[in-house]
Amino acid sequence: MANKAKLEALLTLINTSARDAIALYEQYGDVPAIDQTEPHPLDDAVDQVALKSAIRTLEGACAQICTTLAPPAHTAINLVQVYDYACMRVAARENISNILLSYPKGLHVNELSKKINIEPKKLARIMRLLATRGCYNEVDMDVFANNRVSLILLNENPVRHMILLHVESTSMGASVLYETLKDPKIAYSYDPVIAPVMYAINKNGTEGTFFDWMARHDGQRESYHTSMRALNVIMGSLAVLTHFPFEKYSTVVDVGGGIGAFSLPLAKTHKNVKITIHDLPEALVQARGIWARECPEALAENRVQFEELNFFEQVPVKGKDIYYLRNIIHDWPDHESALILSNLRKALGPNSRVLIHDYVLGQLSRKQAAAEASKLGVVVAPEPLLANFGVGNMRAYQQDMTMWLVHNAKERTLQDCLGLATAAGLKLEKVWDLAEACVLEYSAA
């Protein structure tokens, strides 16, 4: 395909995918606007696979055509001159969105600065950068109001907790990534205790893994488990409740289930299922309180049980229908992941299924991607888009970096996943592509 023809094809993909997204929004009401001050009904829809599929193509094609047409220096400097995270930290830490709720017509930075004790001219620069990104509206000069994006930063929103995890803990690891690659004592190690985040924290005398560090800080641990609920909307992960046939099964084990980010919605949508939540004691203490408040009927009907489990040393409850692991395996390097899966395999009955819900890193090689698509049903981007959807799937690759920085772990390619699972005695039955992450369904080999 000639170069100009490739650009024309990308323009067609942009137009088609944008129209697909518009049509999906119109099914729920009006199409949103960048300065909209209310959430759209589709924002919290359980099944966003169709929307995410359209946005995956749209973002990938937009970025690819911009990179193709822009001067290389323009693109390269844009990769590094990015301070959005620092500004988001200020907004989240100072509860700016909550403050602006009382000022629907906007609040001048001079008044906002008095409420949060930040110099007004500096605050205006932060707010203007975020508004340029589409987070907050500048309704008049130096007067800012909430919009649909900034409402994500409200205190009660779990996504705010995920944002704080990234802008505080993860950013510490990013600042020392190069040093960890060059330190001869740790450069070739995948030990979680020397993940870049812990390398940075350990300068203060802290030891252990990131999870060990959180266990010693109640506020951090509670915020972390709350942030896991944010994955429901960030990843659109609750789509598994409508795409996988849970109605055919009666028992589900949520391995490493935390406070119930997955199993709470499962209990509300599939009341035929009895759930076992496995996790460490401190997580289950928080979980019991949340379930008593948000889903007391499941407790009263004995549809949920909380059982302590160290999945490196113990076997989950045996013989259940479904064993579900969302964002568990990606927290650990290969050695530890193999232990988890080996112990899990010991629990399986002949008809049990294992669902591993994680990002799966797509291949840039179209030949390899096509081979995986033909054998396993993995979705490949249409040409001339990069085979892995390029920037349309960028969060998977950023999340891979997050796992490295925080845990010395990783997101995995499909071949990586197959290698780990096969060694543990699991057989891949199906890949459920949910447009952002995938659910890999395994049986006992």
What would you say about this model in short?
The chain is built from 20 helices and twelve strands. The chain is of the alpha/beta class and 445 residues long.
Q: Can you walk me through this structure?
A:
The protein is an alpha/beta fold and 445 residues long. The protein is 49% helix and 12% strand. It folds into three domains: 3-80, no CATH class; 84-153, Orthogonal Bundle (Arc Repressor Mutant, subunit A); 226-444, Rossmann fold, CATH 3.40.50.150. The protein is built from 20 helices and twelve strands. A seven-stranded mixed beta sheet has the order 6-5-4-7-8-12-11. It has a three-stranded antiparallel beta sheet with strand order 1-3-2. Helix 17 links the parallel strand 7 and strand 8. The radius of gyration is 23 Å and the shape is globular. The model has no long low-confidence stretch (mean pLDDT 94). This is S-adenosyl-L-methionine-dependent methyltransferase. Residues 210-381 form the O-methyltransferase C-terminal domain. Keywords: Methyltransferase, S-adenosyl-L-methionine, Transferase. One of its GO terms (biological process) is methylation.
Topology:
Layout: H1 3-26, H2 49-69, H3 72-80, H4 84-93, H5 96-100, E1 107-108, H6 109-116, H7 120-132, E2 137-140, E3 143-145, H8 158-175, H9 177-182, H10 196-201, H11 210-215, H12 218-234, H13 240-243, E4 251-255, H14 263-269, E5 274-279, H15 281-294, H16 296-300, E6 304-308, E7 322-326, H17 334-345, E8 353-358, E9 360-361, H18 366-376, H19 394-407, E10 412-413, H20 414-423, E11 426-433, E12 438-444
Parallel strand pairs: 4-5, 4-7, 5-6, 7-8, 9-10
Antiparallel strand pairs: 1-3, 2-3, 8-12, 11-12
Helix pairs in contact: 1-2, 4-7, 4-8, 6-7, 8-12
